[in-house]
Write a structure and sequence with these properties.
This protein is of the alpha/beta class. About 25% of the residues lie in helices and about 25% in strands.
Length: about 375
């Protein structure tokens, strides 16, 4: 192919401004990079942080960090992939050489993390141009577009019979929720689980807990319609968030018959995080899978930590290793254990990305997927 190709993408000129669907130039992949013809992109709550300026990313920028598509071209040195391969994209590429990678924690890669919100790829530069001016990447991916150049280690090959709209959701919410259950907590059959916050990540955690054989799965949320969806996906009981965190925790303890082994907070807000901790029984753990604001602090009763051996576990990306866990999650989907397609509430075109953003912002959406067209 030529050195650059033209494509349509949703451009954010500056934080707080509307997205514009425009024609951009996309340069060919460099060493260790892959050109992907995107077929589907999720619209995630974390994209709102970019649009609103809550996270500091250089602009103009193309948002989106959940995507799936078909490999079109390989940069120098890329092995294990070929044009025509179907791939799901991960925003957590890894170097394989830093201390975290050598400790088998590639999702915490010390090389990739400092670069994630810098607006470029792993070499710090961008492949995007608009009218000759530089455009930045988001989380190495920028999936609100027809194509993307991404790090090769962001590409995980998937079976050709998996729908792209399902594969795209692996990129963030599904892996964050399922991984929090399977990897961070390591839920075993018969254990009790509570999930606080039942958006896309929370509902994925509900499904992951059900698939793990949890004896009880209790969903907690303010919105009745989300709790109904949680029950449809296998939650054994629901608790409506009312009152203070202590009252919500009491309701979870009552519904579970004495407290849960793992309470997974998917909100990142101090109140629900405290409720998660107080919902656990002896030797239980609160799993913090939401992303708090920088100034947020969590206060918990310290005495119950040694006396009850209560624990707090952090969970980013579900402690997952995408090249290992994407295939495992999709295998469970194909066998009917994780009905991931039931998470999708809105299917929209790239031109309707603003509608999708509004649906996520209002809380009406469970998962929004953009159909980016193209041939398989």
């Amino acid at each position: 192919m030529s050195d650059a190709t033209s494509m349509r993408a949703a451009l954010l000129p500056a934080p707080g401004t509307p997205l514009r669907v425009v024609e951009l130039d996309l340069a060919a992949p460099g060493p260790g990079e892959v050109l992907v013809r995107l077929r589907s992109s999720g619209v995630c709550q974390d994209d709102l942080n970019l649009l609103d300026g809550t996270v500091d990313v250089p602009a103009p920028v193309v948002p989106g960090h959940e995507g799936a598509g078909v490999v079109e071209a390989l940069g120098e040195g890329v092995q294990g992939l070929a044009p025509g391969d179907h791939v799901a994209l991960s925003w957590a590429p890894y170097c394989g050489r830093c201390e975290e990678c050598l400790r088998d924690l590639p999702h915490l890669c010390g090389t990739a993390w400092p670069l994630m919100l810098a607006g470029g790829l792993l070499d710090g530069t961008t492949r995007l141009r608009f009218g000759g001016a530089e455009v930045h990447h988001y989380c190495f991916l920028s999936t609100f577009a027809e194509r993307a150049v991404v790090p090769a280690r962001s590409c995980v090959q998937i079976p050709a019979d998996v729908p792209f709209e399902v594969a795209a959701l692996l990129g963030c919410a599904v892996t964050s929720g399922v991984g929090a259950v399977w990897r961070t907590a390591g839920v075993r059959p018969g254990e009790r689980v509570a999930v606080i916050g039942t958006g896309g990540t929370g509902l994925s955690a509900v499904m992951g807990a059900v698939a793990s054989g949890a004896s009880q799965v209790i969903a907690v949320d303010r919105r009745h319609e989300r709790l109904e969806r949680a029950q449809q996906l296998g939650a054994s009981a629901v608790v409506v968030w009312q009152g203070e965190p202590e009252q919500v925790a009491e309701a979870v303890v009552s519904a579970s018959g004495g407290g849960v082994d793992y309470a997974i907070d998917c909100t990142g807000r101090p109140g629900p995080m405290r409720a998660a901790f107080l919902s656990t029984r002896k030797r239980g753990a609160a799993v913090m899978a939401g992303i708090p604001r920088a100034e947020a602090e969590l206060t918990v009763p310290a005495r119950s930590i040694p006396r009850m051996e209560r624990r707090v576990l952090g969970s980013i990306y579900g402690s997952a290793r995408p090249d290992r866990d994407f295939p495992l999650i999709l295998d469970a989907y194909r066998r009917g254990r994780l009905p991931l397609d039931r998470l999708i509430s809105h299917r929209l075109s790239l031109d309707e990305v603003g509608v999708g953003i509004d649906a996520v912002r209002s809380g009406d959406a469970t998962r929004v997927v953009l159909d980016l067209g193209g041939d398989a």
